[in-house]
Design brief:
Potassium Channel Kv1.1, Chain A, alpha+beta, single chain, 3-stranded mixed β-sheet
Length: about 120
């Protein structure tokens, strides 16, 4: 198995096997034979979590990073990670973040998140 390096914007490098890139919903034509791939829109902890999810099928998502995980999962078409990130957002709705979480639900087409926000507001 050939290896590849993923580098996020602060120049941290993560090593992975090329076959994992197929789980990112991308074809080999996108990555070609590159030995290094730059993921510039996400922070270190999110890229680490993405790799953990690719290898283990799960990752720990803290509420402060749930939207970032949702964004990377949406970008790479990882429906399971979308569900996990949405669950974290839904479980942590507050008066402070309710409107924002509703907007996130709109942006990422998550009707159940929007419903949870509406239920929270109606209480």
């Amino acid at each position: 198995m050939s290896g590849v390096e993923l580098t996020e914007f602060s120049r941290n490098t993560f090593h992975s096997y090329r076959f994992c890139l197929y789980f990112l919903g991308q074809s080999s034509s996108v990555f070609g034979k590159a030995s290094e791939i730059k993921i510039s829109d996400f922070e270190k902890h999110v890229v680490e979590g993405l790799l953990e999810y690719m290898y283990k099928g799960k990752t720990h998502i803290i509420p402060a990073l749930a939207e970032d995980f949702l964004r990377i999962a949406d970008f790479y078409l990882l429906s399971g990670l979308i569900v996990d990130a949405e669950a974290v957002l839904s479980a942590n709705i507050t008066a402070v973040n309710a409107v924002h979480n509703y907007q996130v639900g709109e942006t990422y087409r998550l009707p159940s998140l929007k419903l949870k926000v509406v239920e929270f507001v109606q209480k």
